[in-house]
Amino acid sequence: MFKLTAAIIGAGFMGPVHTEALRRLGVRVKGILGVDAAESRKAQIALGLDRAYSSFAEVLEDDIDVLHITTPNRLHYAMAKAALQAGKHVLCEKPLAMNSQQSSELVELAKKTGRVAGVNYNIRFYPLNLQARHKVQADDIGEIYSVVGSYVQDWLLYPTDYNWRVLADEGGSLRAVADIGTHWLDLVQAITGLQVTAVCADLKTIHPVRLRPRGEVETFSGKVREVAATDKIDIRTEDCGAILLRFDNGASGSLWVSQTTAGRKNCLRYEIAGAKSALSWNSEEPNELWLGYRDKPNERLLRDPGLLDVAVRPFANYPGGHNEGFPDTFKQCFRAFYSYIANEDMNAVPQFPTFEDGHHEIVLCEAILKSHQQGKWIKV
Hints:
Dihydrodipicolinate Reductase, domain 2; 9-stranded mixed sheet; 6-stranded parallel sheet
């Protein structure tokens, strides 16, 4: 589909996900770089790629069009900066950087270099979330009064659950909010077209000490491997928290985020209430959109291309009843990103999350952390 080539940085949880999605689009993935030569080689063989890069410099020297960054958070800024300077388009996992100064610099550098730069807020690309956005834009919801919801998981429920993401030096001062809460915040702002203007946060660390097992632990892998805890590690990042929100149209909102909610594997939920109707969606049942009304029966819209707006249909590739899920959101996000590059029209409005969106989420995170620390509302 696309005469573009890509390389993947990071061979953990996200690297193979990106690779698989790109192949489904027809994008050639030339190679992958892991933390060392052994991991790079292992990933190359497992994924059937041409190259196992030996260094980041080798990646930048290769004749590729796009660099996908799926490394730990602390590496995003330097890698994205170097890739842009080397003339590569960049698709980066969130967060874009460790602070807003870094992310602001990357926004400006992308503009200066003329490279296409996106952040992988893939949850936007469930077809029914795109349909929800269309309904808001068509004024089917009316003036928005409130936006509420949650994003909860259980993969860090126990003190023996461990991953680099729990470390502030690796992932940043915020964890649950930055790791999954930003997905919710990006999604509801993309759907509603509203911006969060003020926040009031109360965050909590359930396990101030976690037990680190031998070796590293891949994301979500703790539930399927035997844990042999050896070291006590002090934790400074939050496991859960509540955030009150104010939007630029005067609407109110709230978000509950948790990585310690038993039984919830990866559950994002939102409810948007407007003057005419309401919308609700749950990521664990992603092929249904609830529509609420005052004066007539409520509805459940099933994901079916024939029932979606014409602008949404290109992002729903299977007939109704043939469910599309998590891996498909990556494919559709990358479709929007690569289509933008292929069209070569930099004046077009991007349909993918941009570096500007990634910067905005980091600004929000800094306001949320400041609110928690000071115990008051903070303007964004």
